[in-house]
Structure formats: C-alpha cells, structure tokens
Amino acid sequence: SNLMTLSAPLLLVASAAGLRAASLLAEGSSSSRCLPSLPRRSVLLGGAAAQCCSVIAAHADAATEKTRGLSAERLAEIVRQDLTERQFLVSGEITRAVYSEECTFQDEIDTYTISKWIKGTKALFVGDKSRVELVGDVQVDADELRFRFDEVLCFNIPLQPKVPLTGTLVLKRGADGLITSYREIWDTSVIATLANAYL
What we know:
Blueprint: H1 2-16, H2 19-27, H3 42-45, H4 55-62, H5 72-84, H6 88-91, E1 99-106, E2 111-112, H7 114-124, E3 131-140, E4 144-154, E5 162-173, E6 179-186, H8 190-195
Parallel strand pairs: 1-6
Antiparallel strand pairs: 1-2, 3-4, 4-5, 5-6
C-alpha cells in the first residue's frame, strides 16, 4: 500500500538508531570488532556498516603533515574542490592537511573527532547513489568559511533509503589557519529530516 511504501524507509532508519550506543561501547574494547561512530545522520542509521579498529591507521592519520598559514582564498578553493569534486559530505574525503587533529565535527545529532567523522561518513553512504551540490559559493574571511549545501543521502543499509537535506556548513579557523571546528546547521529538524526518507 502507499502507507507501507512511505513508512518503510522511516522504519528502517528509526530501527537502526538503537545500535549507535552499542557501537560506542564496542569502540572501547581492543578485542571487539566495532562499528564506526556515525557522523551527521547517526541517529538515522546507528549500524550502517562494521569496520575493524586499526591502531596503526589511527597513528598514520594523526601524523598527517599540516598545511598552515594558507590565505583565506586558497583555503576556500581547497574546501570547494573537496565538495564539488570529492563530495566530502558523503565520501569523507577531506583534505586532512588543512584540518587540525583536534577539530570537532558537529551536526544536529552529535559531535565527533576527525577520525570518527571520516570513518563513519565513509561507512554511512552509498557514494554513487548520493549527491552533494554547492549552493552559491564558499564565503570566507580570516576566521571562518561557510557555504550552503543541497544533498541527497543514500544510506548504506538494507533497501538503501534516501534522505534529502539542505543546510549551511560553518568551518572555523585557528590562529595557524587550520580548520578547528566543523558545524552543520540543517534547515530542517531531525524529525522532519527523518520524515522525508524515501526508497
């Protein structure tokens, strides 16, 4: 029926929400296979995909050489390319060299470390069925960058439900020019976003 068709994706994303707490507990065990802390839409999916924890990879990530002191315009160019060419909001493919390792990633759901945000985002979406568009251009000054986005998120769970989402991303810069804060501001509430899920 039409009701079943409309409610199925909502039931899928809602039923997955309870798995997120378990994934955070598992992360504390060195012997456990752990789910990523899923960024941005974690309440929608909780258990999109399991990944093995890798201490070696974590150390390699933290050792990424940083590019400090970039002009505002050059940093805006890098962020623009990450969005339009690498679709980083659904792929997790950021230019890590321009982000502080202490950068916090916050959405309407929770706050994440840089490593958790990258790993979770990579596990969360079906890249070739998701899309992200830059609305307007990246606005930039000495202290922050901001831009509006329009995206359709295809989740990596059974039936691969999709959720449209628009909003603003604000990136704050530190004294050395690195990005120290990532903050998503959605145009719709979490409940309203969930209600827009479709197959």
